[in-house]
Amino acid sequence: MIDYGGYLLLGLGSGAVIASLALGLVLTYRASGVVNFAHAATGMYLAFAFYELRETGDLVLPILGLPSRVHVVDTPTVFTAFLTITVLSAIVGLLVYVLVFRPLRAAPSVAKVAASLGLLLYFQALVQLRFDQQGASNFSVTSVLPGGAVDVLGVRVPVDRFWLAGLVLAVTALLWAIFRVTRFGLSTRAAAESEKGALLVGLAPDRLAAWNWMAATMLAGAALILTAPVAGLNSTTTSLLIVPALAALLLGNLSSFPATAIAGLGIGMAQSVILRVVTTSAWIPDWVPRGGVQAGLPFLVILVVMARRGDALPTRDSLAQARFPESRRPVHPIVMVAVLGVVASIGLLTFDSNARLGLIITLVSAVICLSYVVLTGFVGQISVAQMAIAGIAGFMTANLSADHGIGFPFAPLLAIAIATGIGLLAGLPAVRLRGMNLAIATLAFAVAVEELVFKSTAFSGGLGGTRVPRPE
Fold first, then answer.
1. Residue 69's beta-bridge partner residues?
2. Phi, psi angle pair for 150, to nearest 5°
3. Are the C-beta atoms of 235 and 135 separated by less than 8 Å?
4. 112-134 in b/e burial notation, b at 16+ Cβ within 10 A?
5. pLDDT tens digits for 261-314?
6. If DSSP codes are grouped into helix, strand and coil, which group holds residue 151?
7. Which of 13, 309, 449, 467 is buried most, with the most CB atoms less than 10 Å from its CB?
């Protein structure tokens, strides 16, 4: 038990980044009713920009079409680099609100979710395009916090973990005080309750929301800059820190700064202990991915909160949901399918190997997109787990064909049935959810599948993969 107590303290570093990201989510939600799925991805870009600035003196710009970078200073110090990125963070937060979410302030929550998911993909692609593909491994990612370590409960704990936790608690206390006693905080709370009422008393909800978005983005950038030496920087995994941050946000009821911060720290500390258990316990099979077990904790937290509260979770636009546009009937669908089917068949028979592969991927993606037509186009809901479910079916087809000798077409049909069952089973706790809540639950499910299933050597075949027999 003493050993586990030390590993709880080791988890303060990851808990600090989860808590700080969740605090930014509270800010944007209280200011504009948006759960920003791109919050961690935005902070990731800012952290990459900080370490690139420290290394080369170049400031990498976030807008595609503009020059990719500008030279700022030859030998930037930690202070000048941090100050520059703080100003950039405020500008990015303002642009995101003004260009993306302010025009959607009267739109349904599903539209806001779709916009934030689009931003997540944008910042992921931006980092991959404008920074080296090796990621932060080419940077000198050194902590700007005091170094050293202390022995606590039999475990050597770096001092920066305590600094990170202390900074998070200090920021939490500051935000709590601002929203409790200052005119700015009280005005933001009033505008969140009723924008019309805020306008009548002379407040400017848009201006208040813009300031909160700027503060949230600066918080995300600072959090990932300070925790990069602990958690690392990666264009994909870092942006997925949004999932444990969402779990902490839900535990804080989307409104409480202290509860959200404590929940974030607790999730990080619990993940550290779970990682210790799975790496030292002999009863856990080798095919279980060690990191995947701890990644499944936020999914369980989200499911429990959703199952207990369902649509009782606060949604600021619940009193005045905008109507979706009418679903139009497709024009001559049989003719279109016949023509495009002939064109695709000709392409499969005549294209070279690269073009044929591209056409096959396009056809597969089109089939998967049909599920979005049904779910989003006709029902008005967003699921982020469709690709994960498709991946389960694909891996199951490979395993059934290669390992169990089940041939075509029985292997794909059985794999479809298994993937459908898993999707329904995972969706049962979310059956009462709509809009934003459903998107949160399905995103957590998709990440859990990625970490627990797709990274399992028993399921995916390891680094070598699984050779699938040709269908006959």
1. 60
2. -130, 150
3. yes
4. bbbbbbebbebbbebbeebbeee
5. 999 999 998 888 888 777 777 667 666 666 667 778 888 888 888 777 655 444
6. strand
7. 13
